[in-house]
Design a protein that fits this description.
Strand content: under 5%
Radius of gyration: 27 Å
Shape: elongated
Helix content: 40-55%
Largest sheet: none
Length: 79
């Protein structure tokens, strides 16, 4: 009786864990959004960081630069 009770508890716990493993949901995934002027200008930030690193300067961004309307228009194909 004791062995069968242990086996039942073990089986239920394994089934419970297996049920939880199958409920994975991609909640962190978001659809790619259209470019906007509120996006950070990552290319410019990378350029400044690279130049500063070569010169031995530490850069602290208080307000990161935003993309200009011309950059957004180029990315979206608008004129």
């Amino acid at each position: 009786m004791n062995a069968s009770l242990r086996m039942a508890v073990l089986s239920l716990s394994v089934l419970g864990l297996a049920a939880c493993a199958g409920t994975e949901v991609k909640t962190a995934y978001t659809e790619p959004k259209d470019p906007s002027i509120m996006d950070n200008d990552e290319a410019y930030v990378a350029y400044v960081q690279r130049v500063a690193l070569r010169r031995g300067i530490d850069v602290v961004w208080v307000n990161t630069p935003r993309k200009s309307a011309e950059q957004v228009a180029k990315e979206t194909g608008e004129k």
